[in-house]
Specification:
242 residues; mainly alpha; Ribosomal protein L11, N-terminal domain; Arc Repressor Mutant, subunit A; 3 domains; 3-stranded antiparallel beta sheet; 3-stranded mixed beta sheet; 8 helices; 60% helix; extended
Length: 242
């Protein structure tokens, strides 16, 4: 049974040479297969989704298997992010609610090996760390152990996935304050780097001037020393001439 593996945009696959070249020789209708793929991946709109086609060459039957997108893609979609933070420890990219994390986890958990929802939530939080995502103002790197200790226990047990407008507004306001603090730290670091560069440049210039001064002083001192040594000799010569 032929198998074809594809990476498609959820619910929006378009005809292309790659698919036609693989399906055409099998005598299958490309348009029908694309429609089937788009229907199967419709819940992942805006996300790249791994898909596998199992084709029965005799009956021309096509089964579409949809695999879960990477957790990072699900998180970015949930939070409206184009990309994560490149400086996870200094610059955060978003402030998610625990409900949003649970929602992503429930989408991903059928494809995970986690023993329960709490373990799966902790795994998704691990992905938040690499993307620079805070969860309710808490760095993801710190939250895993807190959840193990009971943090957000009720929300996880009840599988809450809806963030209230009031809570969303509170988290947005909190994140704005966090971003302001981040900018202050980043600007201070940039200023410190610039000052260090200028200080290094000044340090390099000073020794050159200092060497010239030392050389000048040494030359002057040498002339005076020679002059003192020559004076007794001249006096002796003057006495001899007399």
């Amino acid at each position: 049974m032929p198998q074809i593996k594809l990476l498609v945009e959820g619910g929006a696959m378009q005809p292309g040479p790659s698919l036609s070249q693989q399906i055409g020789p099998l005598g299958l209708n490309v348009g029908q297969i694309i429609s089937k793929i788009n229907e199967a991946t419709s819940k992942f709109k805006g996300i790249k989704v791994p898909v596998e086609l199992d084709i029965d060459a005799g009956t021309k039957k096509v089964d579409v298997k949809v695999f879960s997108p990477p957790a990072s893609e699900l998180l970015k979609k949930e939070l409206g992010l184009a990309k994560g933070s490149g400086e996870q420890l200094k610059k955060y990219s978003a402030n998610a609610s625990i409900e949003q994390i649970i929602s992503v986890t429930l989408t991903k958990i059928p494809y995970m090996l986690s023993k329960d929802l709490k373990s799966a939530v902790k795994t998704i939080i691990g992905t938040c760390t690499s993307l620079g995502i805070l969860i309710e103002g808490i760095p993801a790197s710190e939250l895993g152990s807190m959840i193990e200790g009971g943090k957000f226990r009720k929300e996880i047990e009840e599988k809450r996935t809806i963030t209230s407008p009031e809570k969303k507004q509170k988290l947005d306001t909190q994140f704005e304050e966090i971003k302001k603090a981040q900018e202050i730290v980043i600007k201070a670091e940039e200023a410190a780097k610039e000052a260090a560069i200028q200080a290094t440049a000044a340090t390099v210039a000073v020794p050159a001037e200092g060497k010239e001064e030392v050389a000048t002083v040494t030359t002057t001192e040498t002339k005076e020393t020679i002059k003192k040594k020559e004076e007794p000799i001249k006096k002796k010569e003057e006495k001899g001439n007399k």
